[in-house]
Amino acid sequence: MLAPKASREPRTRRRIDITDLPAETVDDYVRAQATDAVELSLERRGARTFLVVES
After folding, report:
1. What share of the chain is helix, strand, coil (3-state, %, to 5)?
2. Do 50 and 13 form a contact (C-beta atoms < 8 A)?
3. How far apart are CA 44 and CA 38, in angstroms?
4. How far is the C-alpha of 19 from the C-alpha of 11, rounded, in Å?
5. Taking the chain (55 residues) in consecutive chunks of 10 residues, what is each chunk's mean pLDDT?
6. How many whole angstroms separate alpha carbon 17 and alpha carbon 43?
7. In sequence order, what are the residues at sequence separation of 6 or more whose Cβ sits closer than 8 angstroms to the Cβ of residue 26?
8. Residue 53: enclosing H or E segment and its boundaries?
9. Which residues are 52's β-sheet partners?
């Protein structure tokens, strides 16, 4: 579950390389790595895939 948005607080942004994770493990990985997330997105950069976590 995503944390509620805090009003007017600066966000931090992390980019985590998930290119080599099997698709069926991404959900568990996100739950473990993004416990403080306000917003999550996926980003492609060339051949790499990144999980972008804003908290």
Report:
1. 20, 35, 45
2. no
3. 20
4. 24
5. 60 90 88 82 94 89
6. 9
7. 18, 51
8. strand 48-54
9. 15, 41
Helix (H) or strand (E) holding 43: strand 39-45
Burial class (CB in 10 A: 0-12, 13-18, 19+), 38: middle
Q: What is d(CA 27, CA 8) in angstroms, rounded to the nearest whole number?
A: 29
Q: Name residue, tokens 């416990």.
A: 35
* Distance, CA of 49 to CA of 9 (rounded, Å): 28
Residue 27 pairs in a beta bridge with: none
Amino acid at 46: G
Predicted TM-score (pTM) of this structure: 0.69
Spatial contact of 33 and 17, defined as CB atoms under 8 Å apart: no
